[in-house]
Amino acid sequence: MGLSIVTVDAFTDVPFAGNPAAVCVLPPGRADEDWMQKVAREMNLSETAFLRTRDGKSTGNRGFRAFDLRWFTPTVEVELCGHATLASAHVLWEDGYAKRDERLHFHTRSGLLTATRSAEGDETWIELEFSAIPESKFEGSRAGVSKALGVEPRYVGTFGSDYLVEVENESVVRRLNPDFGLLKKLPVRGLAVTSLPGAPTKEKGYDFVSRFFGPAVGINEDPVTGSAHFFLGPYWGRRLGKQEVFGYQASPRGGSVRVKIRGDSVLVGGKAVTVVRGEMA
């Protein structure tokens, strides 16, 4: 039998919405980067996640299980991916790699991420905890950002390997038609373009809206970007005076992200649904 691979729609509980990610749990000792990249290219999703039990041993007796986790786009390996981490946690609990009350520890190139599962009424949420991504000095070209997006930003900031670009309103966010060739030349992984919500989005309880563009890593527009919410959430939390905010990523697929700010840590929460199960030759 070949390795199983599962496709999960993250940041949604409705199939064919949110952000799809492929998840593959590897046997001990398997870590062929070239093979992983080929699989990711074959899946042709924004990210494919590869997991391996850390050191080949279960740590469930300590209340958590630990895994090595890597993420690949169809063209490159990336340092951080929220939606594929959420999808990975969903698969590990759903397929019995971990008990549903166990915390998951993911060892990644960006450090340790943790995931917990909770039932809230009739809903099941997965929360990813990671350090808040701090803002650093913006040393790029504001004019270059404006030209690539085709709009004049209200604010541009640098957060890790991404830009946060605030624009006037939700209508501007939704109408964006960027020049991806110019975006690809910017010295960042991607751009999170965001604003306060307009009606009816605000009426549905959202605190902000966003879209994310990452042509530099082979993804022109990411449907729902969990990693960007590690800085989008604190950014809007500070401006709105809230410790918990709810964001909507207004891509064609769309998805909802809940963010809780806890000091230097951020909890990014969402739902997930399995849509495809397969076996690789």
Task: Walk me through this protein's architecture.
This protein is α+β, with helices and mostly antiparallel strands and 281 residues long. The protein has two domains: 4-132 and 268-279, Roll (Diaminopimelate Epimerase, Chain A, domain 1), CATH 3.10.310; 135-256, Diaminopimelate Epimerase, Chain A, domain 1, CATH 3.10.310.10. It has six helices and 18 strands. The protein is 20% helix and 41% strand. The termini are close together. The chain is globular. It has an 18-stranded mixed β-sheet that branches. It has helices at residues 33-43, 82-94, 142-149, 170-175, 180-185, 229-240, and strands spanning 4-10, 19-25, 47-53, 64-72, 77-78, 103-108, 111-120, 123-131, 135-136, 155-159, 162-166, 190-195, 208-214, 219-222, 244-249, 255-262, 265-270, 272-279.
CATH class of the largest domain: Alpha Beta
Beta-strand share of residues: 35-45%
Total count of domains: 2
Given as residue ranges, the uncertain stretches (5+ residues, pLDDT < 50) are none
Tell the overall outline: globular
Number of helices: 6
Name of the CATH homologous superfamily of the largest domain: Diaminopimelate Epimerase, Chain A, domain 1
| Class inferred from helices and paired strands | alpha+beta
Radius of gyration: 18 Å
Going by CATH, the architecture of the largest domain would be Roll
Query: What is the number of strand segments?
Result: 18
CATH domain topology of the largest domain? Diaminopimelate Epimerase, Chain A, domain 1
Distance between the termini: 8 Å
Summarize the main sheet: 18 strands, mixed
What is the ordering of alpha helices and beta strands?
EEHEEEHEEEEHEEHHEEEHEEEE
> Considering DSSP H and I runs of 4 or more, what fraction of the residues is helical?
10-25%
- Average pLDDT figure: 93
